[in-house]
Amino acid sequence: MQNIAFWGSKNTGRFILKSCPEDINVKYFLVDNGEEPLKPSKEGKVPVISLTELKEKFREGEIDSVYIYTYTRYTLSGIIRKLKGAGIDHIGVFRHRVGLGEKLDWTDVVFLDELGKPFLPYLQINIVDGCNLNCKGCAHFANLFDVSDITPLSEFRKDLEFLSERVHIFELRMMGGEPLLNKDVIRYIETARELLPDTDLRLVTNGILLLKQPEEFFDSVKKNKVTLDISGYKPILPYQDKITSLLKEYEIPYVMTLNIGKFYKTINIKGDSDEDRAYEMCAQSYCTHLRRGKLYICPMEALFYRYVEHFDIKDFSLDPKEFGIDIYDSSLDFDTVFQKLSESVPLCRYCMESGDELFDWAVREDPEKEDWIAGLK
Ligand code: SF4
Ligand code: SF4
C-alpha cells in the first residue's frame, strides 16, 4: 500500500477520491498555505495539511510520495518548484488531463525522479503568427503579424526532435495566431505526436475555421490524441452548438472557454518596473515558449520584438536578439536552462509590477501601441 499526499483539496479532493485505486492510500490533501499550519479540517475522511507540515511527514516516512493533478499545466511548474524547495523529490504527475465527468486514470502517473531526464511541464509554440480574428491587445501580438508568417515544418521538427531527446515535455500547445490558418496543420500534428508519444498535445484555436476543416483533419486530431482548446470569443458563439456536436461525433476531446469578455494590458512602456516583482505578479511566467531554436520564459519575451519593430519604439533599452535561451548552446545543460526559465528576465521591467489592467475584448484591425500599455488612464 502506498501512502501519498495529494496536492489540492475540496473539488480536486472529491474528484480524486472517486477514482482512487485500493492500493493507494490518500493520507493527506495538501494546500500551500505559506508557513501557517492549517486548522484541522477534513475533506471526506482525509485531513488537509500545509506544505510545512508535509515536509515533516515526508521526512518521517509517513508519506511515500506526493501526487499532482492540475487542470492547467502551467500551474504545475509552480507546484513542483514549491515541492522541490520543500525537499520532496518523489513526485507523481498525471500525464494527461481528463474531460469533465471522466475518471482519473491512476496508471497514467509518471514519477519525476524516474523519468531519467529533466522535464518541462508546459511548452507552447506558434505554428502561425498571424490570426483571422485580430483581438485588441493579443498577448501573442498576432495582429502585428501576417497570416503568412508561419513556423516552417522543418524547423518545428528540428527543434522538437532535439528537445524530445533531452527533455520530457508534459504538455505541448500548438498555437498562434490561429493555427488553422496553416494549411499543413495536419503535418505539424503528426510530427508532434511522432516525436512526443507521451505528451499531452493541444491545438489552441479561436474555432472560426473549425467547421470548414476537412474530414482528414478531424481524423488526424483523433488518431493523434490531440485535445482542442477553443477560445470562445463572441464571433464563434453562434456556432458553438454546431462545433461541439461535430467534435462529439468525431469523439475528439475539447475544452471550450466561453464568451471571453476581458483582456489584459500588461506593458509598462517606461520600463522601470522591478523585474522580480513584475515576474511574481505575472500570470504568463510559466508559459515557456519555443521559437526558432530558443526557449523563452513567456510569449511576451519571444514576440515583443514585433511590437518594438511595428511601432518603431526608439527608446526601448533592450536588444530582443539577446532574449531567450539557445537550445543548441552546448555549454548549457537542461537543468540549468530550466533554472533560468524560472527566473525573471530584463524584459520583465516592461511589465506592470502592480498586476495587469483589464479591458473589454474587441477586434482591432488597425492596432495602436496603446492597446497593450497599462496605466494610461
Ligand atoms: S484569437 Fe485573438 S487572442 Fe487568439 S491569437 Fe488570435 S488575436 Fe490573439
Ligand atoms: S516579461 Fe516577465 S513579467 Fe512580462 S510577461 Fe514575461 S514573465 Fe511576465
| Helical content (DSSP H or I, runs of 4+) | 25-40%
Q: What is the ordering of alpha helices and beta strands?
A: EHEEEHEHEEEEHEEHEHEHEEHEEHEHE
CATH hierarchy: architecture of the largest domain: Alpha-Beta Barrel
The CATH topology name of the largest domain reads TIM Barrel
Query: How many whole angstroms does the radius of gyration measure?
Result: 21 Å
Distance between the termini: 59 Å
Strand order, sheet with most strands: 14-13-12-11-9-16-17-18
Give the mean pLDDT.
91
Whole-number count of domains: 2
Shape: globular
**Secondary structure tally: strands:** 19
Assembly context of the chains: single chain
Query: Spans of 5+ residues with little confidence (pLDDT < 50)?
Result: none
Q: Any ligands, ions or cofactors bound here, and which?
A: iron/sulfur cluster
Walk me through the structure:
- The chain has 377 residues and is an alpha/beta fold.
- Helices cover 27% and strands 20% of the residues.
- An 8-stranded mixed sheet has the order 14-13-12-11-9-16-17-18. A 7-stranded mixed sheet has the order 3-4-2-1-5-6-7. Strands 8-10 form a two-stranded parallel sheet.
- α5 packs parallel to α6.
- One iron/sulfur cluster binds next to α8 and α9.
- One iron/sulfur cluster binds next to loops.
